[in-house]
Amino acid sequence: MMKDEGPYLLEWVAHHLAVGFTDLLVYTNDCTDGTDDMLIRLEALGLAHHRRNVIAPGIKPQPSAIRHAQADPLVAAADWVMVFDADEFLSIRLGDGSLDGLLDAVVAAGGTGIVVTWRIFGSSGIVEWSRDFVTEQFLHAAPPMWNKGWGVKTLFRFDPEAWKLGIHRPKLKNKVLETPFPGEVHWLNGSGRPMEDYFKFRGWRSIQRTVGYDWVQMNHYAIKSVDAYALRRFRGNVNAKKSKYGADYWALQDRNEVRDDTMLRYAARRRAIFEGLLGDPVLARLHAAATERAEARLDALRAAPGYARFVADLQAAGRTPITAVEAKPPKPRDPERIAAQMSAVEQRVVVPVRVQRSEPHGLPPTDIFVRGVPDLSRDVPLEWHDNHGVAVPADPRLFTPPALSAVAEGKFQRNAARHLPGLVPQGGRYAEWGPACGFLALRLAAERPDVSLCLGGDDPAGRAAAAHLWARAGRDLAAVTTDAPLADLADADVLALAAPGLTAEALAVALDAARPGAVAVVERLWIEAQDRMPALARVLAAHGLTRRLTVDPTVWAVFVPAEDAG
């Protein structure tokens, strides 16, 4: 669906042809910059398909276009369908970046669709208008684990008799709900893992259990530069009435915390297709006219008295810490009404899963750390909160949404932070292997200056995060960091094991050299290695650490000799 996207249209078409789409169907309404004429020409050249979005009274443009597409023979004949907008560009990380490769992987995994989560791309600090490609100008985005940016688009195997198209995902038609068809729908998330079954029936965004970006993401360029945003904001003049495109919306969308240049993998192919499109004199003329029209409009806006203030307000909004921005939630809905309307099919599929999750198997660890080496190269606005005497950043480059909530409340790793200082004897030694962020050692340094600290393990992600926290505290991380093997740390009074790759065999070798007074399994080892815990516990028991203390199992586990428990 498009309206006045003339300066960006050919890049959008070139990109998605480079990705591998065979048919691009675009609906337009009320264009004044030649977008529709460009699409008509593209259709004449056999490169895209154009339809007029005839909007019935009381219907918004986007739902109107989707209704038309549902009845379009081109869509009905498609094997796979995806609905997305002019400011959305598909970015495939898997393999060679081709759509064919992605679909082959989906099918090989038993999938009939893949749910693609947005990545929100900000302005990259760019104010002025440029004719450069959107996909090559704006290379900074929100961190993957920022849940306010988790809207989705769904690429799925289409059957017009079974599916009703939707903005974020299709809806099952009523006539197939009581057939075997819903059970044959198997969607994957953006990392190629099975989606939860509820999403067949409802929802428009990922949640922490379902989000994934390893295979594919939908790059969402909602704002672009300040000048480009002004063109969207001021349809009339700089003093136009308030719209949703104000400073609050800018603060939400201008997220530049991490660099993501995955789009550059398509640069050569995209550019070649774009230049080929400009080889058509009609397209070249229409593209130039649309671009020049936008630039003339910008000249008028810049000359207006209120424009400098507008720019300054956006720049100030862009400095809002990511945890302080607000996203307007959907309108409140009646849970009882939703429950009453839930189909019997969904009840059969989803309710057993809920029951299974409620079985008393013990509380699982809370996944609080973002996987991979964090990109901390940009100095971004952050909120820092006191957590047990340690300043911790509400930084989604490091922490997952549950952890961010705990940080904001001053409760990050609360159980461990409270009890760890009491485990180390006076003048004792605390060693940590593979710390995820250095918080626990920093907590000890703040409360127990008598304790000797030693942090080891070759973990670039953990060291980068720890450096972030320790620098804020004004403490020298290098002074307590060692490259020594685990065996050299094993004689500590308390040995905290955090490295997620630690094996039972490696632990046994280390404990053969020396036995610590207590072993705490913490952070990413405790979170990511639950399947290895029985083997690790056997090694600890074989070395005299036979008792497990009663501590919060969502945070850590502590093993001590039998005579020390109690």
Could you explain the architecture of this structure?
The chain is built from 21 helices and 20 strands. With 566 residues, the chain is α/β, with parallel strands linked by helices. It has 2 domains: 6-320, no CATH class; 384-564, Rossmann fold (3-Layer(aba) Sandwich), CATH 3.40.50.150. Strands 3, 4, 5, 7, 10 and 11 form a 6-stranded mixed β-sheet that branches. A 6-stranded mixed β-sheet has the order 16-15-17-18-20-19, with helices on both faces. Strand 15, helix 17 (439-447) and strand 16 form a beta-alpha-beta unit. The protein is elongated, with a radius of gyration of 27 Å.
List the helices and strands and how they pair.
Blueprint: H1 6-19, E1 25-28, H2 35-44, E2 49-52, H3 61-70, H4 73-76, E3 80-82, E4 88-92, H5 99-108, E5 113-120, H6 134-137, E6 140-141, E7 152-157, E8 163-164, E9 171-172, H7 181-184, E10 187-188, E11 216-220, H8 226-233, H9 247-253, E12 258-259, H10 267-278, H11 281-303, H12 307-318, H13 335-341, H14 344-357, E13 384-387, E14 390-393, H15 401-408, H16 414-423, E15 429-433, H17 439-447, E16 452-456, H18 460-473, E17 494-497, H19 504-513, E18 518-522, H20 523-528, H21 533-542, E19 547-548, E20 556-560
Helix pairs in contact: 1-10, 1-11, 2-11, 8-11, 9-12, 16-17, 19-21
